[in-house]
Amino acid sequence: MEDDLQQFLKSRDVPEEDIIHMKRDKLCDIQRGCEFIDLTNQISTHHNNIFETHGDDDTVEWNEDDELGQTDEDQTTVITLNLNAELNEAETEVPSPPSSNPVLLMGNEMLSAPEDLPSHSRNHLSPTISSGNSENSKDVHALIHRVKVVEDLLAVFMDSSIIQSTLKMEFVNESAVDDAGVSREVYTAFWDQFLEQCEGEDERVPRLRPDFSEVEWEAVGRIWVKGLLDLDVLPVRLSSAFIVACIHGIDSVSDDVLMSSFQNYLSSTERSAVAKARQGTLEECDEEDLLDLFTRMGSHCIPPKNTMEVAIQTMAHKAILQEPKYIIDCFSKTMIFALLKVPDQDSLLSLYDRRRPLVKKVAQLLQTTQEIQSQKEQMVFNHLQRYVRNADQGKAEKFLRFCTGSSVICVDQIKVSFSAESGLCRRPVAHTCGATLDLPYTYSSYPDLRTEMITFCPVITLKWTSCEFDAAQE
User: Fold this and answer.
1) Tens digit of each residue's pLDDT (9 = 90 or more) over 315-369
2) CA 82, CA 59: separation in Å to the nearest integer?
3) N- to C-terminal Cα separation, the chain
4) Can you list the domains of the chain with their CATH numbers?
5) Which end of the chain has fewer beta carbons closer than 10 Å to its terminal beta carbon, N or C?
6) Listed residue (132, 156, 159) closest to 143, CA to CA
7) Distances 16 to 6, 331, 382 between C-alpha atoms, Å
8) pTM
9) Mean pLDDT to the nearest integer, 411-426
C-alpha cells in the first residue's frame, strides 16, 4: 500500500524529499481498509499545483443512496474527489472568509444569508462588510447593530488595511445614507459604550479585560485613528496623557499633562482632597477621602507632607501610564498614522481643547442659512441661542449630537433653517450629515421652544433615523 502511494505521489511530481518528510511524520499512515482510486488522469500536469494551493476548494460528493455501501466481503471505502470547477478560474478565485469573521461583500454583490431564515433573522447574523478593490485602496461598507456596536465595529477594524480604505457605515434596520453623519454616530456610540468599561470619571483610561487580546486592542487603536483622520471625531473623555503616551511614548508625557489628566481621572471628592493635599491645606474631613484613594492605588497610609507631592505624582503615573502599559503598546502600533494630524504633544492637547463641547463654543456654532430673517425667524433663533447658552454640559452634548451625530465638536458650524410646521407636525429636525437643523418659527415663546428641545433631543439622539431619512429624501 505504501509503495502504491509513493508511486502516486511521484507521478504528481512531488519531490522525493517531501515524500521522505511525509513518511517520517506519519502523514502517509493510511489505514489498510482505504484505497486510493486515481480519477484525475484527464487533468493536465500544469494544473497539478491546485492540489497544493487550492485544497480547500476540492469538494467531496456523497450520494447517500449508493456507492458507499459495504458488504462482509468488501471492506474498502471509495472516496471520490471531484474537481468540479473551471481550472482557469480556480487560480484566481478568492477563498471564503473564516466563519469567525464578518460576512465579506466584494464589489456590489452581497453574500446572502440562508434562504430559509426570515429577513429579520438574516439582518442580525453578524456585521456585514462590503468592499470594492482598487489599486491603492478599497471601498468598505459596514452594517452595524446598534445594540452591539462595540463588537461589530471591532470586527470591522480587525483588518489593518481599513485605515487606508474608504469606509461607509449604517445601522441595521435604520434607513439612512452615510454622508459623514451616520459614521459620526457610529463612532460616538462606540466610544460611549467602550468608555463605560474604562476606569476614571471625566477622563478615563482603558483597563485590561479578559475578553480583549492584542488584536482587539489594536483594533480599538485603529478606530481612534480612523475616526480622527476621516471625521475629526476625537473621544475627549479618553485620557489625554494616555493618548500622548500611545502616540509619542510614555517618556514624552510631561508632569503637568499627567497631573491634569489625573485630576480629571478622579471623582470630584477625590479631586478636592488631592488638590488640598498638594497645597498643604488638607483638613481632617478630607483625610478619609485621601486615604481611600491611596488604599485603592495600593498604599495603606497617607504619606507625610514633605513627600506628598512625589507620592501623588507616583500614584498618577501608576494609574494613567503603568497599569495600561500593555494597552499603550498595542495602541502605539497603529497611532503612527495620526502623527501627521498631531505631530507633537502640544498639537494633541490643542486638538483636545478645540474638540471639547463647551457650552459657549457650541452656541457659537449656530448660524442661519439666510442672512435676512423675518421677525419671527429672528425671534426663534434668539430663543435657540438662549437655550444652548443656558444648557448644562450634558444638554449641550446631547444637542450637539442631535445636530451632528457626534458629542464632540467636529464641524465648523451648525446651520439653522426655518419651517412653518405647527401643531402635532411641529418638531425640530436635524440632518446630521450636513449639520443642519430645521427649526419651526411657530414657537410663541422661549419656554415653548425649550420644552420641545428637551423632549426631542434625547429621544432623537438615540433614534435619529427619521431625521437622516428626511435628509436622504432631499
Assistant:
1) 999 999 999 999 999 999 999 999 989 999 999 999 999 999 999 999 999 999 8
2) 6
3) 74
4) 2-90 (no CATH), 103-196 (no CATH), 240-352 (no CATH), 359-473 (3.30.2410.10)
5) C
6) 156
7) 9, 47, 87
8) 0.70
9) 92
